[in-house]
């Protein structure tokens, strides 16, 4: 090809790019829905924060109220979910992963992701925090944002280069980006957990959509980190042994937590609790709510909700953390997930991991507890999700100082490796459970 022909080809490509209205319409729609997804997650965040504040006020005025309120709410949430929106159960990440599976046809995708499930998830997860349950909003944010982004396919031009797979992946990642205020974490989540095949021709647009969703949170809440800034002092060789201990313990505890979750949610046990859950799920949920209320009262209210306030107070040195917090929060979060109500585990996992790191700091007399708290957060989250890069990046963006970056990465990798010896990847296994619903698709509007 001559230089003149080459120049003509380039000009032709530019002309096609500039004058293809369908291409630009598709891009505008994707970015508009990305902004809408981010704003929806921001609204969901506001709803959950207000709901839990009401619960705390209520519980402070009447210490005994959770013994009645929490079981009743848990039972009501599960009854409504099972009757009207079964696809909103649990975290929401397995549903998005299931919707991305090649075996799922467009007709069945609404079993896992839709605007109806988005609205239901927002309402029921908010109610869960109003009830004081130990759950997070980040997993639900993935399904919520994915439902909004997937709805964009209805308005895309016929020749759009963005597939339903790409919209779901971008929406799920946007949920993490907006919930944690970490666009980079959202991108890594898309790569590590959601991506199954490359979206070569639209990858730049989808990455822009993820970042734009995260910027919606920044524009409203400011450029603040999830738990505040974790300031790390100068590191030394004294960190090696405590950090290794945190990594191994986080891996063991996180692997055990994931294994318990998988066995409990799968419900294939022969114990009386599994049979009770299968025969009377609503009554079982009420029993779980009672257990959560008792644990909350024993812990002076610290195990209720996401664990956000406890973790922040611990990092700021304003909280006299009980050595039993790790165990109590562990059990409360497990029982909440076992009940089957809509809710995630990201925030509780960060809280458990942070408290574990704080315990190791006290046990080893390590001076800068905040360092081990950060390592514990990354380690336990990586062990539970077996997504070490996402976990490391989420916590990394909380840290003021680059000195801890390699330590965070190493802790996440070691903890994830230890966890794999105990349990298979949690979300992939739960996604396979979701796919079993394809064998018995719903026949009426209540499913």
Can you tell me about this structure?
69% of the residues lie in helices and 1% in strands. The termini are far apart. The protein is mainly α and 447 residues long. The model is unreliable at 443-447 (pLDDT under 50). The longest helix has 41 residues, at 21-61. It folds into 2 domains: 17-221, Clc chloride channel; 230-436, Clc chloride channel (Orthogonal Bundle), CATH 1.10.3080. The chain is built from 19 helices and 2 strands.
What order do the helices and strands come in, and which of them pair?
Layout: H1 3-19, H2 21-61, H3 66-84, H4 93-99, H5 115-130, H6 138-151, H7 164-180, H8 183-194, H9 203-221, E1 230-231, H10 240-266, H11 272-279, H12 281-298, H13 308-315, H14 325-339, H15 346-364, H16 369-385, H17 388-396, E2 399-400, H18 405-420, H19 426-435
Parallel strand pairs: 1-2
Fraction of residues in helix: 55-70%
Q: How would you sum up the global shape? A: globular
The beta-strand count equals 2
CATH class of the largest domain, named: Mainly Alpha
Give the oligomer, counting copies of the same chain as homo and different chains as hetero: single chain
Which regions have little confidence, pLDDT < 50, spanning 5+ residues? 443-447
Number of continuous helical runs: 19
Q: In percent terms, what proportion of residues is strand? A: under 5%
Largest sheet features: 2 strands, parallel
Mean pLDDT: 83
Rg result = 22 Å
Structural class: mainly alpha
What name does the CATH topology of the largest domain carry? Clc chloride channel
What is the CATH superfamily of the largest domain? Clc chloride channel
Structural domain tally: 2
